[in-house]
Write a structure and sequence with these properties.
There is one protein chain. The chain folds into two domains: 4-151, Porin; 157-289, Alpha Horseshoe (Serine Threonine Protein Phosphatase 5, Tetratricopeptide repeat), CATH 1.25.40. The longest helix has 14 residues, at 188-201. The N and C termini lie far apart (51 Å). It has 294 residues and is α+β, with helices and mostly antiparallel strands. It contains eight helices and eleven strands. Helix 2 (176-186) packs antiparallel against helix 3 (188-201), helix 4 (210-222) packs parallel to helix 6 (244-256) and helix 6 (244-256) runs antiparallel to helix 7 (260-272). The strands form two sheets. The protein has a nine-stranded antiparallel sheet, with no helix packed on it. The protein has a two-stranded antiparallel ribbon with strand order 1-2. The chain has helices spanning 157-165, 176-186, 188-201, 210-222, 226-239, 244-256, 260-272, 277-289, and strands at 11-18, 21-29, 59-67, 72-83, 89-93, 103-104, 106-111, 114-118, 124-130, 133-140, 143-151. Strand 8 and strand 9 form a beta hairpin. The chain is 34% helix and 27% strand.
Length: 294
């Protein structure tokens, strides 16, 4: 069927409250290279228990927030919300950056329809649950950002590709974790088809945050899958053509794949986009290594 949950490396257990009482089901596991949960499987052995009318807060949630500094809306999450035997809630942020552990949220409170918790970074989320959506505010570093969280649909990679083939993708566009699942399991060509289809219908919609695909590309580079890493990072450049870091990463992948001229072109383009200092320094160092500094 194909889903990030199918390639298990670390089990998560979730407490499920249903109409027939409380039970415990295995949620499957996270794929290490993404730390993003993909689509939920339709099979009971791997699916997170769906929220019931009795407990609509339980489940996997992913959202979109307004970045107050860049003034762009970007994907955020996913979160796993669980109900413990004593009735308390636990919330886990499934970090979208590679090599970082999931983060257990602190000071979790849910009072009827209001959810709040604090992240390890000090950021505080306060949201209201209404009609299956969590809407609220993320406060951090003196900023306040609007966000909206929705439950990740219970569908597989195959289901998403079928929507694409049938021309019905606009009915339920893929979420970030679902796109990552297609990218990892079905390859960058199918992920690009999804991206292009969504872009043709909604040019302003972001399917993923730039760091998610970028980190997967570096994971492939670290596994010496350089040709595949190039294709993944080219996809990130297509999604973020004004992001210097995307071109810097692609240039590094070209270099390691032996594509000298393409590497130089990508790295010079990264510099033309006025990157932040660390990205600029990396691009310059790679160009120096290539003997291409002017």
């Amino acid at each position: 069927m194909g889903s990030i949950l199918e390639d298990a490396v670390r089990p998560i257990r979730t407490k499920c409250v249903g109409t027939k009482g409380v039970g415990t089901k295995g949620v499957g596991t996270l794929l290490l290279v993404t730390l993003l949960l993909g689509t939920l499987l339709a099979t009971s052995s791997a699916a997170v228990c769906a929220a019931s009318d009795d407990d609509p807060i339980v489940g996997l949630w992913e959202g979109r927030k307004l970045d107050a500094r860049a003034q762009v809306t970007e994907p955020w999450g996913p979160f796993l919300i669980q109900r413990e035997d004593d009735g308390s809630l636990t919330v886990t942020y499934l970090d979208s950056r590679f090599g970082r552990r999931d983060q257990a949220m602190r000071h979790v409170r849910f009072d009827g329809d209001r959810l709040s918790f604090k992240m390890g970074s000090g950021a505080v989320l306060e949201a209201l649950l209404r009609r299956g959506t969590l809407s609220g505010m993320l406060s951090h570093h003196g900023l306040e950002e609007d966000l909206e969280l929705e439950r990740i649909p219970n569908r597989s990679d195959r289901d998403i590709m079928t929507l694409l083939e049938d021309g019905r993708l606009s009915e339920a566009p893929p979420m970030q974790s679902e796109l990552m699942s297609v990218l990892v399991h079905q390859g960058p060509d199918n992920a690009r088809r999804l991206f292009e289809a969504v872009q043709s219908q909604d040019p302003d919609r972001q399917l993923w945050g730039p760091s998610a695909v970028n980190a997967y590309g570096y994971e492939l580079l670290n596994q010496n899958q350089t040709a595949l890493a190039v294709e993944v990072l080219r996809l990130n450049v297509a999604a973020y053509p004004q992001a210097a870091n995307s071109f810097d990463s692609l240039g590094e992948a070209y270099l390691r794949n032996g594509d000298r001229e393409l590497a130089i072109e990508a790295l010079r383009h990264a510099l033309s986009l006025h990157p932040r200092p660390e990205v600029r320094n990396n691009s310059l160092e790679l160009l120096r290594e290539l003997g291409a500094l002017n």
